[in-house]
Amino acid sequence: MRFIPLLIGCLLACIALPVVAQKKPAYVSGRVVDENEQPVSRASVMILGRRTGTATTDSGTFRLQAPVDKAFAIVFTSAGFNTEQRNFLLSEGEEEFIVIRLERGARQLDSVVVTDQRQRREAGLIVLNPKNAINIPSPTGGIESLIKVFVGSNNELTSQYSVRGGNYDENLIYVNDFEVFRPYLVRSGQQEGLSFINPEMARNVNFYNGGFQARYGDKMSSVLDIQYKKPKSFGGSAYIGLLEQGLHLEGTSRNNRFSFLVGVRNRSNRNLLSSQETKGNYVPSSSDLQALLTYQINNRNSLELLGNLSQTRFTLVPEFSQLTTSVFSPFFSANLGLDIYFDGREQDQYRTNMFGLSWIQQLRKNLRLKWMVSHFENDERESLDITGAYLFGERSFDKGKPEYGLIVNPLGAGLSQTFARNKLNIGVWNASHKGSIDLGRHYLQWGQTVEQQTIDDKLHEWEYQDSAGYNLPYNPNQFSLSKVIKSKANLEITRLSGYIQDNISFNDSTGFTLQAGVRYNYNSLNNEFLLSPRVGFSWKPAHWKSDMVFRGAAGIYNQPPFYRELRRYDGTINKDLKAQKSWQVTAGFDYNFQGLDRPFRLTAEAYYKNMWDVVPYDIDNVRLRYFGENSAKAYATGLELRLFGELVKDAESWISLGFMRSRENLENDFYYSYTLDSLNNPIDSVQTQGGWFRRPTDRLFTFGMFLQDYLSTNKNFKVYLNFLYGSNLPYNIPNSVKYRNALVIEPYMRIDIGFSALLLDSDRSKRRSHSPFKNFENIWATLEVFNLIDRDNTISYLLIKDFSNSTFAMPNRLTPRLLNLKLVARF
What we know:
By secondary structure, the protein is mainly beta.
């Protein structure tokens, strides 16, 4: 892409050479100093995109010949200082003098090109840069959008993600060591609000996609460990976009004992949802307020208070929906359409509050204790009463006829009504202790948690379906509903859990480390006591020329049931449900190498998960519907390859490739096929066993790529590309063994791109004293194009019967192409 402008530039240079030769050169001169006005010697002074440059003298001065009548940028770099850039446009014979002040702060490679050996030695660990969560073009944005580059996605409207064949309920999320939760009654990505994690407040982001250590909790798939900032001075940021707006402030007291970090966000997906197939009045809104307050009591004791108030409202008054699909078979070929006319409305509300208090003791240099208490409350309300009258048949796509876009050959007609009045309140009190002691080659960690969970639940749902005048399921003697859920549940569950772990470093010449630990878990719901030993290792051959680390992990990973796993399809609660259990192994390598004169990192991991006492489930959009029974065994196995590095200098990029297979075998999954006589009476039957099915998250191939680039002549114009691809997924007919894996969701492919321009740089020397932007660090403007290729991705199916009682599957599509504008300012 950059070779074409280069070729054109060379031709123009040859044409203009006689004129340029007669011009007087321009110069940029000046002095480079540090924050204490001391000269910085041997600092690099380079014209961006060229090999032209110089170095400062011992007194910090420099003089550099520059282009004439052409915009250019000069980059100033020096070991131990942050990089600075200045933009210029000079006339013939002009010379400009400047003073550059470099701020100290030893430049580190971006987080994915590591110098920290810890992330290379822990299996499954990916360290992310939270700044990229602001840059990545994605409708949901946030930390989860970065994670999807590595694990894949099938829905851009949700922050939920699936890791190595598991569902979202199998993932742990911690913020400053507090476990956080999200609403449970959400049915679709349309209803989701903000993610709990505010990326502007995040300092460290560690993501484990498997093989995590005993110090983390009892789930089977992944851990997302977030640490928020600890401010050292006043600052903040503000952004405004068509989808989301936010503000964050941070600062400290004069004696630096007290610090605050506060963030507020608001999000509305109306522009995103208004382009979907179902037309109507969408009123989605979500907002949250988060704060982290810290107080240093003395050198050994400090307090942290983390709080979060979040509320999401979703109102929909649907009017009309038009679905279309093509069917090709030896017996039937047509463009099928479904037109639905709605009456009614949906109104949902999800409120989440969380407060946590930590007391941190650094009793000695090698001994650290942490005492925590927290309360989480989730209050959810769903009100739904929508009636839809539909006409189903062949749709005309002949633009030359007046019936273009209309259904010309009706195959079915009917009416459906969906009703829900659901309430859910979940409260979680948690008291925990964590500690660590460094004994040289041994680093011991331990923890203990007592948790009290209360669940107050009331479900009242039903669906009525009428097809061509007949109530479904058809029974001429009575009126019946196609689905009814009516139940109440009041549960109190006490959980005890804890762990002890030793991190052992062997002789440095061997390059071998070992992490071994065990955790336990007990809950009062079913009185089940679980032990989970886990071990991990890493080995860096000391005498190899290649910078390579081999690593692996093995262990038991159990998952005691929470709210959704307990509930059966009919709404009843199974209090005897046991924990889902698994043993897992993972092994791979981490290889650092040089390419294109820049550092790169290649990782590869293979894994195998064997699971039993599994609770099967179906996925409808983002809603998980569990069977409520430990009635399956399953496995997942795969290989993941990832490349981290700077494909373009000073702009980190990632490429991720995954292969996976996940299967499950349900107990008592047999069904009968009947032979009928001329009067449709059964005369014979054959029993068929279901066998091994694809799990709902089974995806053979995933590919993710996040690329950053900038203009070769100016870093102030940047581009960000987010590319996701995932092969097909199975789709199950709800609560059906015979039609499990009956349908397939086509591959998911999505390209989002963003263009950013720097409107105000960090050079404050040119700003006037009365300028309203005097204290701003920088201001960026971004244009994002979501779903660049305008692909119709499918998230689920709507099942429709025709007049002959045959069933057709109509795909529910996700979002089309959409533009978004965003302005980000930091100060």
